[in-house]
Amino acid sequence: MAQPTAWDHLPEPLAVDSAPVPEYGSGSLADLLPTLAAGMAVPGMTAAITELTAADRNCVFLIDGLGWEQLRAHPDEAPFMTSLLASSRGGTGRPLTTGYPATTATSLASVGTGRPPGAHGLPGYTVRNPETGALMNQLRWQPWTSPSAWQPYPTVFQLADAAGVHAAQVSSPTFQNTPLTKVALSGGTFHGRLTGEERMDLAAEQLAAGDRSLVYTYYAELDGAGHRFGVDSDSWRGQLMHVDRLVQRLAEQLPPRTALYVTADHGMIDVPFDEEHRIDFDEDWELRAGVALLGGEGRARHVYAVPGAASDVLTCWREVLGEQFWVASRDEAIAAGWFGPPDGCDARVYDRIGDVVAAARDDVLIIASEREPKESAMVGNHGSMTPAEQLVPLLEVRS
């Protein structure tokens, strides 16, 4: 009998189809506004989240960076939202999934358009623009690209407004004229207010301004504290305490026949600062071989190969990272439903997705210390399909 060798027990790369794909079509962020709009008789909308009950007035309060797992882990800092956990997703006590990647630009576009990333076309933090060959940052919209060409679909707010629903967004004035707001959240009226308290008060007023109302409001600072200090920091906990009070403030002012939904665009994890957990692309010749552009972010990478090298890059990335990342070719990721239903990926979006797509399973990042110094220095990170990043609350208050 042959003696076993070390080669007999090599670890297998993570199977592409073992990734926990978002619940597109039944329980993702892209399904939320169409469900609410369908309940207000907006034409063309489908109530995909079947657990929710229709209301005449609907408010979505999106808290940037508030994952389901992080909320459940901090009952003392968020007593009001903790008291609402059982109300999540129509009283089932279950979370929603964000969609892949679990990142702000992608998630906001999914929320506002009611479409998954493969359709709306914002499939990552940075992606290649096939027309120019350059990376495009979809959060900061750099370099500038025509918003209507990049994301041509109408938003749910626009469709609701056209159907006679009072539609409004209440957010920081900073966001009023950004391209991301234009392609993802425009429709009806935008109201800029600086403080969270002002936003809560005005959101309540806007809800009461119509017999049928659809209002969106937003809070960003929790996410900022997580990136800078981590979700285990006093700064993050302090922000969570503040936003918990904001949710209660809004809930106590709801006009009659209103449903308030508190959700988020992604969760977050803290990643240690060492070579084991932070793999530096800029210093790793194996990962760089054959790569023309590195897109995405540390936990959700789009890798664009030089012509003819895509197969070799896929093989290398699987060999180097396959125990810690789900590593897929573009076609494999689309077929597995990472970006939405496989048959729903628009042709204009196809080449924005990397030749190779790498999604982290473990607490690890692919940083790029020279190309992305600011992003590489962040404590809290997100983007992948792990529960800590992918699951978000859908807390409900009714009046």
Largest sheet: 6 strands, mixed
Strand order of the largest sheet: 6-5-7-1-8-18
Strand content: 15-25%
Mean pLDDT over the residues: 96
Characteristic terms for this protein:
18 helices, disordered N terminus, about 20% strand, six-stranded mixed sheet, globular, about 30% helix, single chain, alpha/beta, four-stranded antiparallel sheet, about 400 residues
Written overview of the protein:
Helix content is 32%, strand content 19%. It has 18 helices and 18 strands. It has a 6-stranded mixed β-sheet, with helices on both faces. A 4-stranded antiparallel β-sheet has the order 11-12-14-13. The N terminus is likely disordered.
Brief rundown of the structure:
With 399 residues, the chain is α/β, with parallel strands linked by helices. It is 32% helix and 19% strand. The protein contains 18 helices and 18 strands.
